[in-house]
Design a protein that fits this description.
The complex is a heterodimer of chains A (188) and B (160).
Chain A: E1 11-14, H1 26-32, H2 43-48, H3 52-67, H4 74-88, H5 91-105, H6 109-115, H7 124-137, H8 145-153, H9 158-181, E2 182-185
Antiparallel strand pairs in A: 1-2
Chain B: H1 4-9, H2 16-21, H3 25-39, H4 49-62, H5 66-77, H6 83-89, H7 99-111, H8 118-126, H9 131-159
Helix pairs in contact in B: 3-9, 4-5, 4-6, 4-7, 4-9
Chain lengths: 188, 160
Amino acid sequence: MIPSVNLKPLHWHPYIQPVSLADATPAQRDAMQVTPSNKTVSEYVRTLVLDPESYVARTLLFNAIMYVEGGLNRADRELGALGASLVNGCKYCAVVHARRHVQLSENDNVVSALYFQREALLSPRDSAIYQFARRLSVTPSQATAEDIAGLRAVGMDDAEIIDLIHAIAIFGWANRLMHVLGHADTQK
Amino acid sequence: MSDAIDQAAGLTAEDALYQTRRLRPEFVDGAEQCRQSVLRPADSQGLSTELRLALALRMALLNEDSALASDYRNQLNQLAPSAGLLALATGSDDLQEPLATLARHTDMVTLHPHQACEQHIRLLEQAGFTHPQIVALSELIAFVNFQTRVASGLRLLRSV
């Protein structure tokens, strides 16, 4: 047995000035889908909306990849996201998606094993997903046909593997925004 | 209809995997919308499509993705890029400002994103990039690193 890791939520702080709701352009306002009475749009949204077109397109794709019905179960998508975030060094995303994995799987065995570097304790399925996530996240990719064979061996079909590829890849994207444009700590 | 990711992954309409990919139209259409939004947005923020394609080619080469590199090279060549942008696109480090700073940033975020810190954003500011441009460039860099992983994953899935 290993102890349970205690992951406190982090707060993200941008390195550049976010858009203020009062000064937002019509395009930025549309992108945030906010009315002047909404004062709780996150700093993250108000920073990325400096380029409203890519913000909208990415947000729609991100939500589809992480939340769409059917296919790969959501905890496995979160494990792909976590593997990518650990390789890419995005502490903020790693903590957010580790905590989601705990909620969705209703235990912290996987997340504790990863944070205490006891990967050998992972189940064959979790291990296959996690190793593939790590190897696909390196530049250039180190993922191999053996990784795919490993996913098939634990029962994943092509549609589920496509879902997993997208969950890992979208964190190749999200990590390169969150970790590049700001930093995370425990201070509000 | 075949798209940039199919072409990069070598998928045609006859492949079973091409059809399996269509079980997720949100992913297929969403990735294409994103591609447009970072390469050919309605509001360029003062960053030309030539510059965007040059950076995309540079990153495809860093990812050792010859199919995507070929796609970006073809698109870039159609726009008759300057010698400076061609040097940026093909991985040169012998560049004038602000491309030299932009190339160093793009390479770092592509290869070693964990190394990113506040100083890197300040360097982009000092090179003359505005905050909307820094966000737009960050989305472009992050998109190409998404696209290379989807293409790479699909190629592996097709191979076994």
